[in-house]
Amino acid sequence: MFADIVLPLAVPGAYTYRVPPLLEGRVEMGSRVVVPLGKAKRYTGIVLRLHQDAPPLAADQLKDIEELVDAEPLLLENQIDLWRWMAHYYLCHPGEVMKAALPSGLKLESETLFAVTEGTDFDDDDLGEVERAVVRTLAARPQSLADVRKAVGRPGVVSAVKRLVESRVIEVEERVSQAFKTKTELQYHLPTAYRDETRLNAAFQALSRSPRQHEALITFAELAGAAAAFTLDNPHLIADVRRNDLIRRLGDNAAPALAALVKRGILERINIEVGRLKTHKALPGWLDRPLSEAQQAAHDAIVRSWDDHEVVLLKGVTSSGKTEIYTKLIQRTLAEGRQVLYLLPEIALTTQITDRLGRYFGEQLGIYHSKFPDNERVELWQRQLTDRAFPIILGVRSALFLPYRNLGLIIVDEEHETSYKQQDPAPRYHARDVAVLMAHRQGAKVLLGTATPSVESYTNAQKGKYGLVELNTRFGDVRLPQILVENLAELRRKKQMTTPFSPRLIEETEAALKAGRQAIFFLNRRGYSPVVQCRSCGWSPSCNRCDVSLTLHQKIHKLVCHYCGAVYDIPTHCPQCEQADLRDIGAGTEKIETAVEKTFPQARVGRMDLDTTRSRSAYERIIRDFQSGHTHLLVGTQMVTKGLDFEGVTLVGILNADQLFNQCDFRAHERSFQMLTQVAGRAGRRGTQGTVILQTRQPDLPIVRWIVEGDYEAMYQSEMADRRIFRFPPAVRLIAIFLKHREERTVAAAARSLAGMLRPYFGDDLLGPDRPAVGFVQMLHIRKLLLKVDTRYSAADVRNILLSARQGLLNVDAFKRVSLYFDVDPL
Ligand code: ADP
Ligand code: ZN
Ligand code: ZN
Fold this sequence. Notes:
Mean pLDDT: 89
Bound molecules: adenosine-5'-diphosphate, zinc ion
Helix content: 25-40%
Structural class: alpha/beta
Low-confidence stretches: 174-182
Oligomer: single chain
Number of helices: 26
Shape: globular
Strand content: 15-25%
Largest sheet: 7 strands, parallel
């Protein structure tokens, strides 16, 4: 018997290993196994396929699987199917999908370090011999799996490490900050098998000669009963019991008895989060909150539309109560006994939405966030494989990778959001598109929700491929905000722009503040100012590792490269002409914050951008402060546009819309429309109509009118006309090809050579090679090719041509070290 195994490496295909007789029948599809690779390396891999076809390798090249890590497969078949599809569609390696999909704790790569958890609480008696040896080894210092294996020198190390990670005795060392780690506590859980009168009685009888275990089980039953009206008629009501409570009742020396009950399988030890996650308590009445008439009509239309569409697009204006409709649809899916995945773009996943859903669904809600500690993600993954799986998962794009046994519905909220697309590293997937595919394969429905659909999704709805439901009134019939356009060019000419705020914006802000209302100022650029320049010779500082100019960050008094993150001191003199006359040009959120403090001294200001939200807690504090009214004015980048719901905001200032309009990107207008409509939608969500002041130098652009009039249709039609003419999505599909290398000459030659191989097949549908606008990043020179694929090409042909061209190129000695990757459906 042989197994094809995917390893977390960027190599094509899977590796084949022999299944040793001992493991036959135990290794399954989806099993996690340890295999040797090369001379000394060990990797954990996932079994993709079991078969009888001996690979064409010499007998001494074919190696055995060394260990099986878990008793049950870690991946369901539908996940393996998804991994395959992703590698295929996004033209990347299966190992890259694996790397993205699994939390680090499940990968146990040989490079990963393990350490004994600080302040861990465990009983030596609970541990097996190998486990104890592992803990002793790691107590000395954190070590890699390979080192631990060497030190312990006995079989079973990997599964021991895995069990210890699960019970949190040891942990995977993470470089990211652990500041927001939630606490956990040990609880005991009665497995399903014993939730039955006969079985449980039999268990008690079997324990008649072990009085301590008998007593422990009785105490467990009492505590479980006290906690949940325990009766055997209602076995599902048997609660889990905290280890601390048991020990308190039974005394310190009860640990061995509890451990023995666990060994017998009568009780399970589980780790329960007692931090933020655990606090979701459903509030009575929330689920029964009625929908408004318009919401109910939209809800019913969605349900009807699912009869003949797998995907329905809900186009509902900001604050129409889309979230409210989602909750009813979730309820409906749960009633069918099926699971729900609720996807949000990364930065929109705030306490606001978690609290909100928590109020409705309480303990049924599981959260999956990339800023959560790895241990928690591992725990959630494993829990989803058990019969205690959360029926609802609220998460960011990577939540697609969790195991789902019974998926009924995927909600993609703010489906137009570009952060659904993973840029780097591979797989460069779009979570919305993957969600649609995944739902299709698992027989689930999809709801895409947004006020401003992506042109792609709206096109699918127009073609009838997706259902379309519209909701055009705000909840409570509040009117959409009034958008006033301020002509920056004219105001500047008249010398009325003495601050970054127009006189009218100042006036409106003062009025709002006086009335006890709040305002949001939006500027899509962080830092103090994007360019620093020498007044006498025009020199301006740029990054040594990238060809971009450095952004001034006044608060930390440094220059920062926004591409690679490098930080530089601010020069006192110009290195070119030695004058000490540097000035900053343009404004970022930091400068605006300062300007707000000067212009509106009576206001307390918050700022929300990448720099102020490095940690989850910082992010949440900014939102809470604003929500509670502690801050009056919030300055921010696009982060403030994302689905936030603040009652007190009546005014939104868009400080410089031209930045968005002028981007050279075929999606610039679509993006501007979406972003500005979204940020405008933060104003006047309750009661009174809000006001939006949009400052631009180009007030006559049609896009400005469409935004002001909320005319999505006009924007859409104009975009579609352009994209048909200039051949951009959705009229064609794009595949970008990137090449990177330290030497500009090498990468240029490689790109030319690749283009030469592809041109015969694609002719003018292949653009480039070009040096991108920023053509040197992190010491690497970049070249880009762009392929426009329409229906004349078969997807399989395109894939084969591209993959063999890549192979052909990388086989050339001079180009061996060129890094080449594809970005399918690039943004
Ligand atoms: P959207 O997601 O469309 O922007 P929300 O779901 O956030 O809109 O709703 C806007 C506000 O109106 C929220 O504060 C929400 O609590 C409130 N709301 C919406 N629908 C209802 C309803 N049926 N009953 C009570 N409040 C509602
Ligand atoms: Zn100078
Ligand atoms: Zn840089």
